[in-house]
Amino acid sequence: MTSRNCAGDTDRGTEAQAAEDLGLTREYLCREPWESYYILRRGILPCCHGAKPIAPMSEWATAWNSPALQEIRSFLAKGKLSPYCLESTGCPVVQRHLEALRQKAWIPQLQPSTRPRWARVVNRLFDGAPARIYRRLTRTRR
Amino acid sequence: MNRGAATGLLLEYGEGWYAVEQDGTGPFRWMGREARCRLKGLGSSRSGWLRITGGLWRACASAPVLSVSANGAPAGHTAISLDVAHRVFPIEITDPLEITLTLDRTFSVPGDLRALGMMVRAIDVFLPEDATEPLDAEGWYEWERHEYFPFRWMGRDARLIVPSRLRRRGRFAGLPVLAPGETGHQILTVSNEDQVIARLPLRNGWHIYDLDLAGGESAAADEPGPVVLSFGVDHLAPSDWRATDPRELGIAVGELDVHDDRRRHDYVCRFHRDAESDRPVDGAVGGAAVPAPASEADEFRDLPIDGDGWYGLETGEEGPFRWMRLEGRLRIAPRARRGRFCVIPIFTAFRDLSQELTILADGLVLAAFPLMKGWNKYTLALPDVSGDLVLTLRVDKLTPAASHPIDLRDLGIRVGALAFHDDDARQERELFIQENLARSQRELQEGATVLTSFPSSLGVDLYGKCNISPACVYCLWDRMKDLEGANVNAVIDDRTLESYGPFFSSVLTLVNCSFGEPLLHPRLEQILDLIERHGKTVELSSNGQAFTARTVRALSGRPVHLYVSLDAASAETYARLRNEQWDEILSGLLFLREARRRGGGRPLLNMVFMPMRANRQDLEAYFKLCRLVEADALVLRPLLRLEDPDIVTERGGYRFDYERELLGRDELETILVDAGRFAEQYDVNVRSQFDFGKIDPQNVRARWRATQ
């Protein structure tokens, strides 16, 4: 029979040790850029949550090892999220990461912003043009 | 439920009634030999119908005859049956209306001194000019609400009175019907007065039929009056169907939905007509098709174990398997070896290639490889031996005991059903996949940035056109089509996929990510052929509006994970998000259910629901819908938090404001708990994709149990 002490250890080893043995502790934040690839009309994406294409569709044969994808892999291999990933705020991994950081109060400003009501009203009055211009400007700055 | 009956009436009980009682269904009163009552609030005088709902006590030996009179004028008489049922009598309505009910006999019950006649549940009046819903006349049982469709059973014959106001809504009528008999066994005949308007060979289970109330003739120009529809089935439900239910059951019928949509009528009729060509169903018994093995993998044969290196047969998400200790032997008889190549599904809990498997035959090493995380298929060429072939499987280490503290066994690997084949090309393809996976995992562990391996999952963009226009309210259609630019009309088909070379041949799963409806693809069958031939699976997301006999047939039995995104369980909610085609989707899903039964459960069906303010009231009905269509899982998916969700639109009488539709954390938590409750109640699997660092995505059923 297995016994368990108050620290959660058993006489058959600790769960932490088991996780280490199974290779769970050496997992990256995300494996997608090694295992998945998206050849879509809107371009090549490293994962389904990618915010923007890393190459046009026609470059599917070379984009797999393109500098953009190499950079994403390189960051993940170091246990970090690349700038590309951090821009892909629809990704659950990024959301979890940002949430963890928010809880530590490091970067509260990184949460996707919700515009004030007056800005939304103005935007609608002009058929969304202010938001489009704003997006274009901020994209250029990045 | 007093559907169709006039409301706001005052019923005064006079002489001859006993006090109100209650049973499992609701309140009722016993009457003696004669009973009187008065109805007030009926307005002006006109013709109408009086409906008495009641029945007898089961021990009553013979059926008495009930005579009804209104204001002293005889309205009719009828024999009273054991079951509670409706009896309808045409009358001249006045205000007030004096009603007298007379029975030709009473009976008594031991221990009860009363002279009992009939138990009466309701007395209603139906005003054909005012009513907006049909009135159940004779032949119907009580309404039930536990299925997706509210319904009531009928025996062999039943009558339904459709009021003028409803008739004016259109010439057609959708009718959900549950036929317990096997497909084609029961025939439903619907007549309007003496004219047969439909003769429907019923398909097994729930299906939606569409009636032409004009019976195919050109609609009359004058104002339509109320009609009495007669329903008749030629066979009752099979005797083993609900054997414990004492009622005489024919079919169950849902609400009649009168409409004027010719396209919808034609769509449903065409589906039924085309589906006829799918019969007879292989292996069908009692109408429900027995899943036929779609491939060798489905035809599970237990492992030919030899010796004591194995534990008992278990079943997991990937199907049946056995756990092996450090070493296990398989003894494969010559007749079981149906090919030179053997494919073995193996699961390892190690995620770092550190567990190695060696396979030996007669002491010689046949193959040795590191095991890749999770379930994977390993292929090997078998030696040519005449008698039994004994394979020894040996792993170099056990799964750490602390990783399965409740299970005290020594666990090595899980092994699934063996498959054999003689196809050299397949062997080559599977070896390539196997070697690529190992290389990929090695490069991942090493943190390589330039890869020699290829992806195991490929996102593709099969079809860029959609049949929903304007797009779904939350769809980023215009933005995406802008991004697609010159590729917006690019043709992606089976030939394109093959042209991807190793990027296609290396993958296990293809995921269609198109902004478009993939089932509309003109080469859908060829694409699915290619994917099946290469032993891959494909994930397709569909809006559910492209189910036709062609697409349903193309999907049947295929290695497809189908995600049908409806986000609504009623026509009203669906209209808020998309359009008015809800009823056609239901028809399509019911035909898909049949095709999946024929195809051994394939394609797998996942029904997607994104909770938001517009649809959160539909959650329970969505579970009922999933049970109705026999979905493999209900997928709860979050509405994405967009950085700039500037989407405000009016649709279906609802103002959809994207930002306002996003639910807060507390509301989403409540929905997940509710989902757990409904999952238990309706026995539907739930997969939560609320893995966004805010909502805990753990098993929703477990969450609900924890709250109890």
Spatial shape of chain B: elongated
Largest sheet: number of strands, sense, barrel closure of chain A: 2 strands, antiparallel
Instruction: Tell me the structural class of chain B.
Output: alpha+beta
Major sheet: arrangement of strands of chain A = 1-2
- Measured as a percent range, the helix fraction of chain A is 40-55%
Q: Round the Cα radius of gyration of chain A to an integer and report it.
A: 21 Å
In percent, how much strand structure appears in the residues of chain A?
5-15%
Shape, per Cα inertia axes of chain A? flat
Order of helices and strands of chain A: HHEEHHHHHH
Main β sheet profile of chain B = 7 strands, parallel
Count of alpha and pi helical runs of chain B:
14
Biggest interface pair, residues each? Answer: A-B, 64 and 57 residues
Distance between the termini of chain A: 60 Å
Give unreliable regions of chain B as ranges: 280-299
Determine the fraction of residues in helical runs of chain B and give it as a percent range: 10-25%
Instruction: Please state how the strands of the largest beta sheet of chain B are arranged side by side.
Output: 36-37-38-39-40-41-44
